[in-house]
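Moderator note: this is an archived Q&A kept for reference. The question asked for a predicted structure of one protein chain; the sequence and the answer are reproduced below.
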Amino acid sequence: MARLPYKRELYEMKRRYGDDLSARSHGESYFTLFNSRFVPDGLYLLDEPEAPLSPIRQLAFLSMIKELVETRRAQFIIATHSPILMAYPGAEILQFDGKSIRSVRYDDVEHVAVMRGFLNNPEQYLRHL
């Protein structure tokens, strides 16, 4: 009898997410979770959703967000360090520096500059290790 309440929850998880999420990679599991939880007219507050996602999956995630925003009127507020997610077309990027909050251009974001610099010349960064 003690297991009965959990059977319903397990059934709902299986119905909503399909196969056992542990059968997928960490990133694939999160991507499936995001995809199944987003609904029309939703407001989503996400804290570093890129953490489990590969760069390719981050691009797919951007595509998912774009489709939800444009066709299902969803809204997203995302805290991120990912230059890929910050590149969302038309995104307003706010920088929190501990004293103030200000709007910044994509090209002025420190993480974007560091990533560009690293990709253009990794040796310059790696020799300081």
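Archived answer notes: The first helix runs from residue 4 to 17.
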